[in-house]
Amino acid sequence: MLDVAQSLGARLGSADAILACAVLLIITSLCYQVLRLAGRAPNGKWVHRYSRVAWQVGGLLGLERAYEFTRGRIPHETDIALLNAYRLLDLEWKHGLFFESRVERFFLQFHALMTAIDLFYILGHVFVTLGVLIWIMTKRNQHYARVRNLLMLTTAVALAVYYFFPTAPPRMLGNYGFVDMMQMHHLAQAGGEQPGSYSYNPYAAMPSLHVAYALVVTFALLLSERRFLVRLLAVSYPLVMAAVVIITGNHWLLDVIAAFVLVVLGAAILAAVSRIPALLAGQRLPLYRWVTLQKAAAERSS
Fold first, then answer.
1. Which of 54, 95, 117, 158 is positioned for an S-S bond with 25, CB 3.0–4.6 A?
2. Percentage of the chain surpassing pLDDT 90?
């Protein structure tokens, strides 16, 4: 526990803006709750609203940092991660799906476009996801719990896969013609962080959480919005993100497919779980109605 606390303390000391913001929001929300229990909280709906939003947003930012922290503490088994990457490559090759290096080399011709794609890969993943979640929480709060739960389940399963199936991204296989463009453009180190940082893990390719989170954003917007343009953008976003992660050499095509499977299964599981309380509460057909239906079915069959 001590080394965990020291890591977090060092990260705050190194000006981790997201972690600092999460801590600040949660502390201010807790202070308001303590003052409210003591009967000394300031009056006004905006104060209560701020406390609620600060708690939820701080929790979201804390969840994002907790994911990064947990991912960074997974053992870096380079040999196994490279072996798994070659397994994916071999599987794609056998089925005619290995095209990632050709796509990357094609886009390398357009330097300005590649820089923009790299920036979108880095910034879109965080800011679009958090932005949509905060909007859902403040404007469509009735859907927030479902979206949050899907995000948390998706993240938890992905972390388990990273632990049991560490996979190197394509950009680490230079012998197959891949180029690490984010390092080339000095936008990020391998793994997304400086080696030794608490979130550094270069072997978290399978599944692609960039694509998985984009699908959660799509789920959230389709659930809460009826405007055609918003729905069109929502459906397009994960497709664009899938193209971006392949063009930048950060994920295999199978990583993208795994992300789609993960989110669809996660949504199905949560939908099934949400029906359990209703079943336990006895919301079934009354017995007399069930008997009537059974008699009618028997008469039809005879």
1. 54
2. 27
